[in-house]
Amino acid sequence: MIHKSVIEKFETIRHETDLCVVGGGIAGMLTALSAARHGARVVLMQDRPVLGGNASSEVRMWIRGAHGDNMRETGILEELALENIYRNPTLNYSIWDSVLYGIIQYQDNIELILNCSCNAAEMDGAMIKSIKGWQTTTQKWHEVRATLFADCSGDSVLAPLTGAEWRMGREARSEFGEDIAPEQSDNCTMGMSCLIQARETGRKVTYIPPKWAKNYDEDDFPFRLDLRTRDAWTTGNFWWMELGGVNDSIGDTEQLRDRLLEIAFGVWDFIKNSGACDADNWELDWVGFLPGKRESRRYVGDYIMTQEDVRAGGRFDDLIAYGGWTMDDHHPEGFDTREQPTIYHPAPSPFGIPYRCIYSKNIDNLLFAGRNISVSHTAFSATRVMATCGLVGQAAGCAAAIAIRDRILPRDVYHTNIEELKQMLMDDDCYLPYNKRSIPELTQRAELTADGEPAPVLINGVDRPVGDTQNCWEGACGAEIIVDLKREAPVHSVRIVFDSELNRESWRELNHEIKLYPQHCNVFADEKDVYVPQALVREFRIEGARDGEWVELYRECNNYQRLVRIPVEGTYSKIKFVPEKTWGAETVKLFALEVQ
Predict the structure, then answer these.
(1) Is the bond preceding residue 350 a cis peptide, omega within 30 degrees?
(2) What is the H or E stretch that residue 450 is in?
(3) Distance between CA 367 and CA 358 in Å, rounded?
(4) Cβ pair 388, 430 in contact under 8 A
(5) 4 pLDDT exceeds 60?
(6) Residue 373 contacts by C-beta under 8 Å, 6 or more apart in sequence?
(7) Which candidate, 234, 222, 230, 247, places its Cα nearest to that of 196?
(8) CB 54 within 8 A of CB 290
């Protein structure tokens, strides 16, 4: 027991802010960034030394999301991917960590607190007044008082601290009429994994397992390790080394980690030394000592999304994000069962996720984002992947910014500002299925031409291909796209959406997994570097017409992002955009060009 007198000897650092985000995984990062970029002051408390959660160098789970052509998640998530591609062509995890760290640490309006674990909350009725966390590196307490709180911790640490309603485990089939749910409810969840990564070398490498590693033979990996060819194992990330679904996936984490490490080093021993795999020149490059978790507490919001909502495509009026992963329900016994480790129940791509699933039913100033949103276990099996979690995080941050600005609560945003929230997200390049982005009034009144021909597609409110409709203008470098305002008017900014190749078409020689998101698993000796998608416009200029004369307002020589906003304060009668060079494509594709 720690006596109160001892606790009081440690310094308490106090913070006052608009929004406190607990958890710095992908969902928490995007919550903090979107809120800060829309004017809210944010404190982000993260219990690890790096950001990214399961996608960080500590866990190294691939970011995954919606299946299918042109279904890549954009917004801040695509911004992160493109920054990593540009800065980190070998996909080094330390540089990836720096990409995530830099975008948070050097963003205006965000105060980052690392190595700080939230463990207390002060309440005022149904409102959270403050939270408190212990920072291991400084031996200090951090107390954060905020107007709103967002729990993006994965394990929903604020639920037991605040009395927020939550669920854990699998609902009975009868509760929501879900035919893939078990007959009886139980406490089972999906498990956790300690992943491993291997690297191919130019020489034979010896591996001597620790004495405590498990011993395996070929019969120990049914439905898991592909041994049809001697090198087929090289394309997987060993996600099936999973435990914890029949345990307490929070309280038993340390013991489960110990077992997972015994499994991990034993699996590599089998690959290296059994003769069943062609692994002589491969070495164990990295082992995760921090388990990556899939499931624990899920909050209860004003709405619980279910299996049937997923199957129906989630056509909610308050749709603020989308998924497109299958209902991928892992066996709770994980590595301990000889049955299939997971069953992929079909789900449409995309399916919508409603705003009512991301704020608390009974704690008035609490939002949440990530794998802990208000869904049933079966729906969770499709919403839990990190790209989907990131979209929900960006929505939570925008909602928080609106609530802070208008001095209202998260639930009020649903009743009074849901259309504004959706338009804000689409303006920030988040795709919302079944919705169209509103065009600024100044652009609506203008005439858009590209090399003298009308170009209405640039203001159709859809910034990606959908089905057979490309929704983009395509032309040559040097083409002049002109927004004719008909009269001189104040112009504040130009918004452009380029083609970043949502399917990464120009990456023909790169493996499929890297095309889905630029993160490594196993590294081959002849691995090729990633590069900026060739369709992106690298060089462009913007001109404005005033008194019949064109003046250059902006010139860019090294763009590598998809969404670009350029401030051009002034009064102009026309705005001209000229794409001058791509990253390799012969033509330019442009989804949007707007002035406001």
Answers:
(1) yes
(2) strand 447-450
(3) 6
(4) no
(5) no
(6) 298, 299, 301, 305, 353, 357, 358, 383, 392
(7) 234
(8) no
Tens-place pLDDT, residues 69-124: 999 999 999 999 999 999 999 999 999 999 999 999 999 999 999 999 999 999 99
Q: For the chain, how big is the Rg over CA atoms in Å?
A: 25
pLDDT reading at 1 higher than 50: no
Helices 26-37 and 386-406 cross at an angle (nearest 10°) of: 30
User: Among positive and negative, which fits the CA dihedral 320, 324, 327, 331?
Assistant: negative
- Determine the 3-state secondary structure of 443 from DSSP: helix
- Looking at 106-195, list the stretches that DSSP marks H as alpha helix, in order from N- to C-terminal side: 158-162, 173-176
482: tokens are 């002109």
Put simply, whether the predicted model's pTM sits higher than 0.85 gets the answer yes
CA separation (Å) from 168 to 21, 156, 363, 440?
22, 11, 18, 44
Query: What is the arithmetic mean of pLDDT over 345-349?
Result: 98
| Contact between residue 594 and residue 455 where contact means Cβ atoms under 8 Å apart | no
Residue listed under structure tokens 């980190």: 88
Per residue, the 3-state secondary structure of 507-535, as one string, reads CCCCCHHHHHCCCCCCECCCCCCCCCCCC
31: tokens are 């919550």
Q: Looking at residue 232, what is its pLDDT?
A: 87
Average pLDDT value for residue range 557-568: 98
Distance CA 455, CA 453 (A): 6
Confidence bin at 3 (pLDDT 50/70/90): low
Which pair of structure tokens corresponds to residue 112? 């980052």
CA dihedral 191, 192, 196, 197 (to 10 degrees): 90
What are the DSSP calls for 227-254, one per residue?
-SSTTGGGG---TT-EE-TTS-TTTTHH
Length of the chain: 596
Q: What is the mean pLDDT of residues 511-533?
A: 91
Contact 131, 20 (CB under 8 A): yes
301-318: pLDDT as tens digits: 999 999 999 999 999 999
Show the tokens assigned to 458: 């640039």
> What is the C-alpha separation between 442 and 445, in angstroms, rounded?
5
Q: Which string of b and e fits 87-107 if b means at least 16 CB within 10 Å?
A: ebeebebeebbbbbbebbeeb
pLDDT tens profile 323-336? 999 999 999 999 99
Per-residue pLDDT at 5 exceeds 80: no
